[in-house]
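Sequence in, structure out. Go.
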Amino acid sequence: MHARELVGSGLLAALLLVVVGPVAAQDTRLLDAARAADSTRVIALLDQGDSADARQADGATALHWAAHWDDAAMADALIGAGADVDAANDFGATPLWLACRNGSEAMVATLLAAGADANAALPSGETALMTASRTGSAEAVRLLVSHGADLDAREHTRGQTALMWAVAQQHPDVVEALVALGADVQARSAPQPRRIHTRTAGFNPSGVIDTVLGSNTPILFAARQGNLEAARHLVAAGADVNDTAATGTSALVVAAHSGHRALALFLLEQGADPKAAEAGYTALHAATLRGDETLATALLARGADPNAPVVRGSQGRRNSPDYVLDHDVVGATAFWLAAHFAEPGIMRVLADRGADPRIVMEDGTTPLMAAVAARRRREPGLAANPAEDERLVLEAARVAIDAGVEINAADADGNTALHTAAARRLDTVVQSLVDSGADLDALNDQGQTPLARARGRGGDDNSTVELLRRLATLGSP
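Output:
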């Protein structure tokens, strides 16, 4: 039991004794016994005439404790002695709310049979039905609805319903029960204006945008959580697989971005639009971000546009490991993103499905440059593997070259792919680029050759400098 829900601590009891004295101690015998889960003593005290509605300083009664402990004998005795089944403590919690919080079907049945209000709610608007849905008690849900609980009541903070809570907490049996009882599968949570970041590093005002979050339907909650079984129940009950949140993000985009391939594939099978782009990016962009080649292949097979650009970055937390389409990738296609994230397999799939490898970003960055500069995404906590990262960069660079990307193209700073490979000291990539015709003497805007970039601040003492000198001596093909 959390203190904010039922303040019944020993410290509070001790303070009451100090302030009120021996008479208060006598008056709290029933509450003390209930708090100690001593149903035998509670029954004895009731037989002696103690009031069943005595209250603690926080407004809690012995019946609150009976519900908390899920003590049927204590609850029966208190109810038989006339306890108020709808008594609420100072936080608005009733015994029924506590029974639902415990997921106790038997206690819920006992309290409802005694006349408890099935629609009693906390000040936040959280009803017993929402609580039972969150804790996962399908039978408690059925009991509450049979006693008049409002299926589509909304809590006050985000305007969410019991069905949304059941989906979000991954209770498909509760979802099934609520849907069967008639819960609204099209209900939307409240829209919430927010100022968000679309950059994940540092602070740049250009990455801060005003938007509206929320306005989610149950199917969007399922997409975020990857709750496939719940999604099946929702779709069977008429949920729209093309529902979008206030941001324009579709259920398919949410599932893809959240890394829930099975749910994304299910939504595709049910007719979700693979081209949906109201979010500012598509499911194909999200699948590429997540490195999901299987999903990317399925999306393309269903008609996803391989050349659609990112027009707005996704929400992110600064300096976080979240999977975010940063503001800096606005304008990128899936092929460019696959290069950027060192996903050569996805690059090949996209190239085979008509992706244009000639995409060039506003700063002049080509897919080849993106591949050479790539930083492989990895799950939080996993150590870097430089050798594997270099292998993937090399493979991605080769895919870009084979697709026809100009090898000596320069970005806005005059750097070519070879400049970047040299600066990163990726020897295998440097060798491959030179073998494919990269210009060893290309100068960037600072007048630097790839060799100068390889020197960097560390001077000549590295293998990349040696490699570039040797290649210059041999002459590039």
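Check: The first strand starts at residue 191 and ends at 197. Residues 1-26 have pLDDT under 50 and may be disordered.
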